Amino acid sequence: MTYTPDNTKIAFIGLGIMGAPMARNLLKAGYDVTAYTLETEKVEEFVKDGGKGAAGIAEAVKGADVVITMVPASPHVEQVVLHEGGVLENLREGGTLIDMSSITPQTSIEVAEAAKAKGIKALDAPVSGGEAGAIEAVLSIMVGGEQETFDAAKPIFEALGKTIVLCGPAGSGQTVKAANQLIVAVNIQAVAEAVVFLEKSGVDLKAALEVLNGGLAGSTVLTRKKDSILAGNYQPGFKIDLHHKDMGIVTDAARSVGAAVPAGALVAQLVAALRAQGDGGLDHSALVRGVKRLSGENPDAG
């Protein structure tokens, strides 16, 4: 069976920066969506937008064909999915669990094995694109799991993103997401260093970033982040706290397979330092603030 709006009930767990717009896009696509998250007011807002709300996991999952989880990290997935009263206890046999959180590949493998033991299909399907990509339904979705399960879930993914790829068996989506976060973090750090270098050199920063983005130095990172960097606006689309968590996943996963990630390890330390300096709640483009501090500037000065 293919999960289309006319035959599918979805339980969506986690209405954070990414989860809330994703759940709303499923509503817009015509799916019957029941949402649950710890913050009651976010559930109430979702209900006002035409969705259904639940007071707990069991209530949300009851009667669902598909459960989507979008929570911060591996411990949260374990709590929501594996522990007593969690998804696997309440989802019917034959249902599908799609975890779209960014967690360790090993946790995704454990979830898939536990799901299989209960007759439940599972996909790990982390996303890239940030808050803007979630709102615009243009996320890149990297998926791990069985081909048949992926094919059945494809219409759901198409309501959320534009680039949707099955990357291999369970855990593969998370491995590719870790690589994504490695590339993004190193890219943002390079942009941050260029920005401070340009500013200190007295160059017209707006003009410089425009011409750089038109050449080989151009990137999605620069396209999406340059205006907010120019404005000094670091309202989070993706928090430093979360990128810190993801860089831990990258370095651990790389170590486990014997891959060297020297640039990634350095940026992981810079992200950790920025978080220790109190900037964990800011957008990851706030790496600019860390470079300014290293360059002897106060990032909060006029």
Protein architecture, described:
The chain has 302 residues and is an alpha/beta fold. It is built from 14 helices and nine strands. A six-stranded parallel β-sheet has the order 3-2-1-4-5-6, sandwiched between helices.
Radius of gyration: 20 Å
Q: Tell me, what's the shape?
A: globular
What order do the SSEs take from the amino end to the carboxyl end, as H and E? EHEHEHEHHEHEEHEHEHHHHHH
Going across the biggest sheet, name each strand in turn.
3-2-1-4-5-6
Which structural class is indicated by helix and strand composition?
alpha/beta
The rounded distance between the terminal residues' Cα atoms is 59 Å
Per DSSP, the total helix count is 14
Q: Which spans of ≥5 residues are poorly predicted at pLDDT below 50?
A: none
% residues in beta strands? 5-15%
State the total count of DSSP E strands: 9
Average residue-wise pLDDT: 97
Helix content: 40-55%
Major β-sheet profile? 6 strands, parallel
Question: Short description, anyone?
Answer:
InterPro entries: 3-OH-isobutyrate_DH-rel_CS (IPR002204), 6-PGluconate_DH-like_C_sf (IPR008927), 6PGD_dom2 (IPR013328), 6PGDH_NADP-bd (IPR006115), HIBADH-like_NADP-bd (IPR029154), HIBADH-related (IPR015815), NAD(P)-bd_dom_sf (IPR036291), Tartro_sem_red (IPR006398). This is 2-hydroxy-3-oxopropionate reductase. The protein has 302 residues and is of the alpha/beta class.
